[in-house]
Every structure is written in C-alpha cells, then in structure tokens.
Amino acid sequence: MDQITIIGGGLSGRLLTLNLIRQVSPHATVSVRMIDKGGFDYMGPAYSNDSSDLLLNVPAAQMGAFSEDPEHFYRWVQDRGVRAEPGDFLPRRLYRDYILFLMHEALRARAGDLAFEHIRGEVMDIEIDGLRATVHLEGRKPFTADRVVLAIGNFPPRHPSITHRSVQRARGTVATLGTPTSSTSCFLRIRLFSSARVKRWLISRSCSTSGGTREL
C-alpha cells in the first residue's frame, strides 16, 4: 500500500487531496491521511469568514480546481444561480463551498482501493529513515508514510522594528503595513465589525501617493 500523509487542511492541502483521490488508478492501493488542527470543513483563516466583502484575488474563470479545466469553478457558481462574469472576483466563501463540495463528491465516487482519513491533530515531529517517514502527533500513536507533504501555508511574518516617529500608536488610528490580500482583508474586517470612526492608513512602497501611504 502506498501511504501518503498531507499535513495541512487549507486550500493547498485540499487541492492536493482532491486531485489524488480523482486520479488514483482503479487498481492502486493507496492510503491518504490529511492532518489539520481544524475540523473537516475548516479551510483555514482565509476561508473561515462568510462575509461577501472578502474576495478572491483571481478572476472566477481562472479558479477551477483542476488544471485541465480552469473555468470549472465559474460554471459551478453559475449552475447555483450566482450572477457573475468570467472576470469577476467572487467571495471566498463561495470558493470554500466549492472545494468542500468537490471533496465530498470525490470521496463518494472514489475508485480503487483508496482509504482516506482526516485526522484532527497537530504534528509534533517527522523522522526520516531511508525512504520512509514516521509522523508523530500530539496525543496519538505515531504512524509511517511513504510520502509526506507539508501543505502548511505561509509562516507568520516577523514583527517589523518600527522606530520612525511618523508611525505612532494613537486612539482611532489603524496603520496597515503592506497592501496584499491579507492587509486588504484586515481593513475590510475593521470596516465590517467596528462601529467606531477611525482613520485607516495603508503603508506600502507601491502606494502612488506621497511617502508610500494612503488614507482610507
């Protein structure tokens, strides 16, 4: 039996698991374990919010879960009555629902002798011995695997050393360093869940305004 362990149940881990299940040979004997601290339907912080204001950063027609069919997601949302154009940036909650739907469908239709297990836990160590690995989980017996995939996403950023006097703590002021998706999501969360009137600043080298800052 070919034993595959995927550590991480976010988008990367889900897409890998989904494609393994779909592409396994009917004659193959494969075991796939997906390990994550969250439940089976939890896909990490980026997809845990139901707000329609938190959007994907890739157009709908390019977000298909299968490389041979990039428009698959776009057709899926259309089939469910969502009005969208191919170039629209749709809510992340829709993409979460899409991936979870595909996971459940693939598991029901899986071919061959394929065993799948979702383990809710935390990996503490991995020991490599030749071509085999032993995976140690907190509070569980270790198990072996032929292949281990680390699908753990990005590491948390380091805290920058801020010494310039132009960046100060002040009541009613929020300064966000950087303008990628995470910063935009942070700004939207403040707008959605804070009733107070606050100043919000995006600070980035890419801002077109003077000094690399933009007030929102």
CATH class of the largest domain: Alpha Beta
Give the structural class: alpha/beta
Radius of gyration: 21 Å
Note the main sheet. Answer: 4 strands, parallel
Percent range for β-strand residues:
25-35%
Task: Report the oligomer.
Answer: single chain
Assign a percent range to the helix content. 10-25%
The low-confidence runs, each spanning 5 or more residues with pLDDT under 50, are none
CATH superfamily of the largest domain: FAD/NAD(P)-binding domain
Secondary structure: number of strands: 10
Q: Looking at the structure, what is the overall shape?
A: flat
Give me the CATH fold name of the largest domain. FAD/NAD(P)-binding domain
Average pLDDT confidence is: 84
Query: Within the largest sheet, what's the order of strands?
Result: 3-2-1-7
Terminal residue distance: 56 Å
Whole-number tally of structural domains: 2
Number of helices: 4
H-E string: EHEHHEEEEEEHEE
CATH architecture annotation of the largest domain: 3-Layer(bba) Sandwich
Q: Concise description?
A:
This protein is α/β, with parallel strands linked by helices. It has helices spanning 11-23, 72-79, 92-108, 181-193; strands spanning 2-7, 29-36, 113-120, 123-129, 132-137, 143-145, 147-150, 173-177, 199-203, 213-215.
